[in-house]
Design goal:
Helices cover 20% and strands 34% of the residues. The chain has 220 residues and is an alpha/beta fold.
Length: 220
């Protein structure tokens, strides 16, 4: 499986431990300030994308010294930098999975733009390849069908988030089950849990976001 990672410029304190420790395998695309973070970790991204308006001149020069393929956009544009990065990842690098880090914290408008990207017609068919990952959450996306997912060892909670109306949603073996449920509006069916190591669900129409999550350990 060819995995391509994207690092957006969200707060470092929300990074998962594996990212902080440099244990994420695969190539990278850097999004705006995410490029600086990668360079600091000794990683030169395949592509740097962004308007770079938040970078100081010396920071932008550092990016140019480390990365050969730089796609500098203008600040006044229709696409966000993350959308531009996703477009390059899909159309040019043909990854089997796209893991996006740094895309969930900080400004809420940025997070919602990142979450809703999968509803755009140009990205929708690639939704099952995309994951948004941070310190507490792994967010995956599904199109109509029947699925079995595996519990992440460090996660307790399981949420089924209908990004659109959905038909015939069934949760087979989770702690809180549903049978042939008609979802009439976007809704987060939060705080469900795995019973075993896997969970099965199906639905007939719409776009599903599934979140495995955990609480913050406030004693560390």
């Amino acid at each position: 499986m060819k995995v391509l990672n994207l690092l957006v410029g969200g707060p470092i304190d929300l990074w998962p431990d594996d990212l902080k420790a440099g244990r994420i395998k695969g190539n990278w695309i850097g999004i705006d300030r995410g490029n600086l973070h990668l360079i600091d970790m000794g990683i030169d991204p395949l592509v740097a994308i962004g308007d770079f308006d938040s970078l100081k001149p010396e920071e932008l020069q550092l990016v140019k010294e480390h990365i050969h393929d730089i796609r500098q956009s203008i600040p006044e544009k229709d696409d966000t930098d993350t959308q531009l990065g996703l477009k390059v990842a899909i159309e040019e690098h043909h990854a089997d999975r796209l893991d996006i880090y740094g895309a969930t914290g900080g400004r809420l408008d940025h997070f919602l733009a990142n979450l809703w990207m999968v509803l755009e017609p140009r990205f929708k068919k690639y939704a099952p390849k995309i994951r948004l990952i941070d310190r507490q959450n792994t967010i995956t996306f599904f199109l109509p069908g029947e699925y079995e997912i595996v519990k992440e060892p460090d996660k307790k909670y399981l949420a089924f988030v209908a990004l659109t109306p959905m038909a015939h949603l069934t949760l087979f073996d989770e702690k809180y089950k549903l049978h042939d449920y008609q979802v009439k509006r976007p809704i987060s069916l939060a705080s469900n849990e795995f019973v075993g190591e896997t969970a099965r669900f199906k639905f007939a129409s719409g776009v599903m976001c599934v979140i495995q999550s955990k609480d913050i350990n406030r004693f560390n």
